[in-house]
Amino acid sequence: MPIRLEPDFPATKVLEGEDIFAIDNQRANQQDIRPLKLLILNLMPNKIATEIQLLRLISQSPLQIDVDFMKVASHEHRNTSKTHLEKYYLEFSSIKDTCYDGLIITGAPIEKMPFEEVDYWEELTAIMTWSKTHVTSVIHICWGAQAGMYYHYGVDKVMYEEKLFGIFSQKLLTKHRLFRGFDDVFWMPQSRYTGIDEAQVAASTLEVIARDEQEAATILLSEDGHNVFLLGHFEYDSGTLEGEYLRDLDKGLDTQKPENYYLSTEEKVTNRWRAHAYLFFHNWINDVYQTTPYELEKIVEIQTI
Description:
This protein has 305 residues and is α/β, with parallel strands linked by helices. It has 11 helices and 12 strands. Strand 4, helix 4 (82-88) and strand 5 (89-91) form a beta-alpha-beta unit.
């Protein structure tokens, strides 16, 4: 089944070029099924690139999916046009009484800042509070995962001596249904200056699903499975890390080449995470479909039991 997008939404043309099926609102409203409703809180500066990356992954489901995008109102967005944001993005005030089957909270390049100093921290915590009762399942990505673990569990982030940057192997520790079909070892892009306090994780009720080569936790789940925390970036395109590397060089930063990324003398990128990225998001959407109520408003009743 297709994903529903506005005809003039920038990602539509890109996805159509990749033979990914999308339909407009008129045709979607004629479908005799209830589509899954997903909400993406996009905190990344280049919002259009992130839109395409995430839509590409969630669009390969056999289910019809309606996607809303949300921005934080308490932050000035300088890297995406005001016209695009006003046309395609919602604010929390307009959806706080709405229920969604799934929510994705993206990363943001602000990990060196204390959480409480982020200008939209109060708004973000309000959204995460709301998600406890109005959303069936939540995926937190990179900084969004660190913010989620700090808010929900009091897990602090820790600074690394240098940026963790590249493609790193991950060891699967459990057979949780969200990772059905995963290899015992798989690859995931990482791009961050911070990790999480492992002692605080061990003392919490969080379940560690995967660890990296240095035995650091990289994928975690809440005890009830409601919150998924991905410290890496399954959604990244093949060239995303290269773009970040060149951007850092232009800024005069001492960023090293991304590890395990250029696998030939010609520095050609080899994508080794794409299959597991699609598999994870497919598993997540299927899991949400199996557990979410048909009548969306009943999510509040279920989540407050």
